[in-house]
Amino acid sequence: MALDKQNEGKILPMDENKENTTEDGIGLEILQIIKDSQQQHGLRHGDYQRYRGYCSRRLRRLRKTLGFKCGNRHKFTGKKVTVEMLSDKRYLLLVLMEAERAWSYAMQLKQEANTEPRKRFHLLSRLRKAAKHGERLEKLCESPRVDAKTKLEAQAYTSYLSGMVRFELQEWKAAMEAFNKCKTIYEKLASAFTEELAVLYHQRVEEISPNIRYCAYNIGDQNAMNELMQMRLSAGGGGGMMAEKLEALITQTRAKQAATMSEVEWRGRTVPVKIDKARIFLLGLGDNEAAIAQAANEETKERLYETLLAECRDTIQAVREELKTEAKQRERSDEASGKVSNLQFLHSYLTYIKLWTVVKRNESMAHMLQAKLKEPQTDENKRGPRPQDLIRLYDIILQSLAELSTLQGLEEDHTFQKEVALKMLVYKAYRCFFIAQSYVLVKKWSEALVLYERVLKYAMEVQSKAKSLNNSLKDLPDVQELITEVNAEKYSLQAAAILGGYLTCKGSHFPLCERLDTFHLDPTLVGKQPNLVQFPPDFQPIPCKPLFFDLALNHVAFPPLDDKVEQKGKGGLTGYIKGIFGFGS
């Protein structure tokens, strides 16, 4: 055989995986290999350059191990893997790594093409090369030496690469055919194996589905956009490549639809929309709000809120740039700035959307925290939600509503101002309620009762003012439910204040040694921190040691002692000399 002639006189390195030919033929887990390699070498973080470097290093190791060198240091001599060489699955792996290296380089260039459009040409070249390597792999797998599963995986892999090339070239029909072929093969493979093995194939099908829907939409299927939105919801809060791809596809679709949008109406005024970014955002606003309403869980809802706010901030920034240009033109032409211009009113509308979205997001977070606040704490060491957390959320809501009342162009809109004032009253009531609850936790009964009365005052005021404003409370929390809850809390609080805290504390506030005559089932006694005695104990008064002061000493007259004191004479120089030599002693 050709392989024997080629390797005659050579000693090939031994490898434990070399003898991998089974009764059915050579087998290679193509999808498993590329997924494991991608996750372990950069693609978990979207680092295609790192993955491309890994593919190059693995190719070099494979060529060295197989003795499949392409020339020497000075000259490159291209060599291709042939069917006759397929005595080892690593020859198939060699071609697979060449395709992966070209594909990863193309994806790297796709990221860079966002800022450098010229790199798109190089991107297409790399994708075509990856598809060419995929076709080579598929032809090699047609050999009878390769098992059936590897043949099917090679066909699906080639179809995927071919579909990517057609997708970038915007050949939608050919791309959809290639992706559908790939999807069909993976679905058949998933049904033929156990559930554990089928998970990988199902994940691949989910990755391909958005591309198929987008191709269908460009061909003319109007239902494809709705399916894309549903896929966006089903992606959950995990993000990653799947979520990024869906966001990109939906943005591209909206960009095409935005060409037909020319104006928007708000608060009885029609404003022309000439900025493309504003058109795209306003066109997708309804879809984003519907997606938030249909979100399956709070995590998904939070992610969609953040996406909407990020898009809104970018749009507002684009409008601000146009406002600066408009202001400069007015200065040059000396125009009087009396009436609010269309661009300024559009800026106010976008700011309203941003602020109201912040309000709804914080309200959603507050509902989630309230539910957790009512749940019993199972872990004593873990910090649970507190009323102070909710107070902070309602502070942000009130700040956003205060900014709404100062929007340019709405100063004379009395209905709008009344609606904002009514909304502020509702959220003030809720904020005051949780401030009262924080006082209850520290046993300040009188302060809590006063705050509960303030909550009832706000709630009654809301109900009286809401009669004149139709549908003003439609999107707001129910104040009647708050009134019911406050009345119940007031009665419990009054009883707790009268009983000195026993009703609220349920006897667990005092140590066990001080309430031995009163039976109370206290679960904390068998917990990690039972309240048995007060430690350290309180200080107690004790009699102090007396101090004695001798007051009579001040009135005692002592006798003179002058005669007892030795008088020193004045000897002069003679006495000094006698003293030196000891004569005077």
Automatic annotation (TrEMBL):
Where does it primarily localize?
A: cytoplasm
Q: Name one GO cellular component term.
A: nucleolus
Which branch of life, at top level?
A: Eukaryota
Per UniProt, the keywords (alphabetical) are:
Cytoplasm, Endoplasmic reticulum, Nucleus, Ribonucleoprotein, RNA-binding, Signal recognition particle
Cellular localisation = Cytoplasm; Endoplasmic reticulum; Nucleus, Nucleolus
Query: For this chain's UniProt record, which GO biological process terms are given?
Result: SRP-dependent cotranslational protein targeting to membrane
GO terms (molecular function) for this protein are: 7S RNA binding; endoplasmic reticulum signal peptide binding; signal recognition particle binding
**Function noted in UniProt:** Component of the signal recognition particle (SRP) complex, a ribonucleoprotein complex that mediates the cotranslational targeting of secretory and membrane proteins to the endoplasmic reticulum (ER). The SRP complex interacts with the signal sequence in nascent secretory and membrane proteins and directs them to the membrane of the ER.
Q: Belongs to which family?
A: Belongs to the SRP68 family.
Question: What's the name of the protein?
Answer: Signal recognition particle subunit SRP68
